[in-house]
Write a structure and sequence with these properties.
mainly alpha; two-stranded parallel ribbon; two-stranded antiparallel ribbon; 13 helices; 4 strands
Length: about 325
């Protein structure tokens, strides 16, 4: 299955439950059909049904479909089998996503290019990211056909026609092995499967023609190599961070700079649609959207909704503070 052993057990058990329910429904439909027809379904009709089901579950998920599919599956198992799924460990997942995106923790990163300053170097926003460097790092590590001997795990789904032309023999073998595991219906290679002539199937053989076996997955090694790559990318981006100018409150008074004019958070721009994004903002949103499995449009909409909630929360807090300390308002 291409999964770690512990996950294979979980997936098999979940499929067993689903197939058990599907079998019950199929038996009920078959019993109902016998009332109206004395002619049994042909073998070809039965296999056609199986083929349609197989296509449904083997088709690759488009952005947004992954989230919806997982949500629907959780509802399905909860409703039919009373399974309780534990809540996500959100802080840990966010930390992992931030590291995978080569972003330093606790870094404020606007895309507008406005020069802002901080009151001291102890400010968590005293460092700013070099977005041009970040984009280059992301692009260089997202090359589908890498210069390595084998394809990077997880990159197969993003392979394009141009990538194929530049692949080595080992990389082509890796890609075809992955494609066969993911999309090729095994019964098609059987002698009488689907009624297709064996001579036709022999013209399009599956498996390696030289008789060699696919490179087995070594998940521990892959995980270690992946973490090493993430660490290198993150360290490179951190090495290109820039210090913001420190301007104390006293200095602001001397030069006549307004206290909030160039502070972090000032002139914050909220994006409503993709067309509003700057080039660096587009690259950032695309990387995040790909990492979490949603469309860029969905991500921009979600961020805008969160921002509106934050604005309402801040307005409510300011109002509550004024009502709690009315004397300070008259000072």
């Amino acid at each position: 299955m291409g999964l770690p052993a512990e996950l294979e057990i979980v997936v098999k058990d979940l499929w067993a439950l689903r197939l058990q329910l599907l079998k019950s429904k199929t038996d009920a439909i078959s019993d109902e059909d016998t009332v109206f027809s004395s002619q049994p379904q042909s073998e070809m009709e039965t296999e056609d049904k199986h083929e349609r089901v197989g296509r449904k579950w083997k088709s690759p998920l488009e952005p947004d479909q992954l989230r919806k599919t997982i949500h629907n599956l959780s509802l399905f198992y909860t409703h039919h089998f009373a399974l309780v799924f534990p809540p996500l460990n959100v802080p840990l997942l966010l930390y992992k996503q931030i590291r995978n995106l080569s972003l330093p923790i606790k870094l404020y990163h606007p895309f507008d290019g406005i020069t802002r300053h901080v009151r001291s170097l102890a400010d968590s926003a005293s460092l700013k990211i070099d977005w041009a460097t970040w984009v280059d790092v992301q692009s260089s590590h997202n090359v589908h056909a890498t210069g390595e001997a084998h394809l990077e795990r997880g990159s197969e789904i993003n392979v394009t026609e141009r990538d194929v032309m530049n692949m080595t023999g080992e990389q082509l073998d890796d890609y075809m092995d992955w494609y066969e595991r993911t999309f090729v219906d095994e019964p098609r290679v059987e002698e009488k499967a689907r009624g297709l002539p064996k001579q036709l199937l022999d013209m399009f053989p599956t498996g390696r023609t030289d008789g060699s076996s696919p490179t087995p997955y070594n998940f521990n090694q892959m995980a270690a190599e992946e973490q090493e790559t993430i660490e290198k990318r993150l360290n490179f981006v951190i090495g290109k961070l820039h210090l913001r100018k420190v301007v104390s409150d006293e200095s602001e008074d001397l030069v006549g700079v307004h206290a909030d004019s160039t502070r972090i958070g000032s002139f914050y721009k909220r994006y409503r649609k993709i067309e509003d994004l700057t080039p660096h903002a587009i690259a950032f949103h695309e990387a995040v959207a790909e990492a979490i499995g949603v469309r860029v449009e969905t991500l921009v909409l979600a961020v805008a909704q969160v921002e509106r909630k934050l604005v309402k929360w801040r307005e409510a807090k300011v109002k509550a503070d004024k009502e709690e300390n009315p004397s300070s308002n008259n000072a």
